């Protein structure tokens, strides 16, 4: 009996590790490729590396263009995430803690957005931006990022705020606190976990966004990493694979850092979003 | 529940979020609908053409082949993500050691940006120099089926679907795993005492108990795949010819390469209707099942 169970376990481990290799090997290969000389990569891309070099990384960083993309990506990411947190927490506060007639409807109006495909916005926003002459600006990316993040983040904040006991708020009202003060001093600080969840999850999404940036940004000075990477993939052609993979390595680093430090919160957001 | 009564504060808290949401989600929907009845190249004046764009769409062969391709793409992506995701999640629940690390590692591909994923797969599929896939076929003695997968008319569509499936397996695995381990252990113990085998426990109790999560995962996965864009656009841009064209890549081409904003918008409207229909279908199938189970 005991032996049978352990054989089964071994089979399970083998299957799980088999899929793990499929999931992880390409990612490891990607990093290995970034520290190999370009010539070696061009001839035998999947052979075991013979020598390690950081020349590729130096080249990409010193080039300056890619550092510019990283700065753009960081700015878009930070601006969007700050707005997402601010707007979704205030909306959630309004619809959970204020005695107003249409709160339920407003909430369903927000959650409806989860089903809307982002493709629908590309043409109208492109036209709208080009009329206002704000294509190639950070705002052109921040606005749709925030708009499409709101449904899920409002949902996450609402589900937390509905557990914040009213006694706390009542006590604060008796002490003479205004609705604003209650939000800044009590409700928002209490929702620290939700803030970290939403922030970490959307930082990764926004850093990786391709479709908005590819549509609204054409000027090289305004490009984010997710689209700027294409310079390397296309422009150097088959010549400089080393730089291509070093650029890719740099583009993957920030989401990985966020994930490995805030792992618990990133997955909490994803799973909460799907189980609510 | 709702205790604050300050109307001015309410408006101040609600409006900014509502404004962003309306501007970036609902204004575009309204504009897309309006544009879908117009003919416009982006420069001249817009001309109202009624249902002409929709009429053109229904007789456009490329539109229909993109639609069929999109369905094949959805089937492949959904099968890869949900089946492997569920399988690994179930197996992980039986394992005791290293599950945290395994879960963390499985999730890593979800963090990689689309351009990187497509470059990775371009190297894997490549024939010159020999990529990983062809190297594999050569080693196992199937060198006759190795080819340039992305340039081959027969394999291009599958080749652009697999990376999209691959990258989000970890997400669905984590979702299923979280649901599975949050099942009340008392129920499982009671069933074991009643003599349920592990196999029965899994199929008769655990999977039915996480049905709501399965429904949501299916909806997420389905709508995600219906709007699939990044990987096909980057890997083949619909080609060779139109064999790997999806609705969203076709819409993109029509709008931003041929400057047919009206026609592009009507395809966008089609995509939104299709997504809503898919959600509705999944919901009603699960609702019917629920009712049948309840009646037993």
Task: Provide structural commentary.
The complex is a heterodimer of chains A (276) and B (296). Chain A has 276 residues and is mainly alpha-helical. Chain A has helices at 2-34, 38-43, 55-63, 65-97, 103-112, 119-132, 138-161, 166-174, 179-190, 192-208, 211-216, 225-235, 241-275. Chain A has a single domain (55-275), classed as MetI-like fold (Orthogonal Bundle), CATH 1.10.3720. Helix content of chain A is 79%, strand content 0%. Chain A is globular. Chain B is mainly alpha-helical and 296 residues long. Chain B has a single domain (44-290), classed as MetI-like fold (Orthogonal Bundle), CATH 1.10.3720. In chain B, 72% of the residues lie in helices and 1% in strands. A two-stranded antiparallel ribbon of chain B has the order 1-2. Chains A and B meet through helix 1, helix 4, helix 5, helix 6 and helix 7 of A and helix 1, helix 3, helix 4, helix 5 and helix 8 of B.
List the helices and strands and how they pair.
The complex is a heterodimer of chains A (276) and B (296).
Chain A: H1 2-34, H2 38-43, H3 55-63, H4 65-97, H5 103-112, H6 119-132, H7 138-161, H8 166-174, H9 179-190, H10 192-208, H11 211-216, H12 225-235, H13 241-275
Chain B: H1 7-35, E1 38-39, E2 47-48, H2 52-59, H3 61-94, H4 99-107, H5 114-125, H6 132-139, H7 156-167, H8 169-181, H9 185-193, H10 198-209, H11 211-226, H12 230-235, H13 247-256, H14 261-295
Helix pairs in contact in B: 1-14, 2-14, 3-7, 3-8, 3-11, 4-8, 11-14, 13-14
Short description:
The complex is a heterodimer of chains A (276) and B (296). Chain A is mostly helical and 276 residues long.
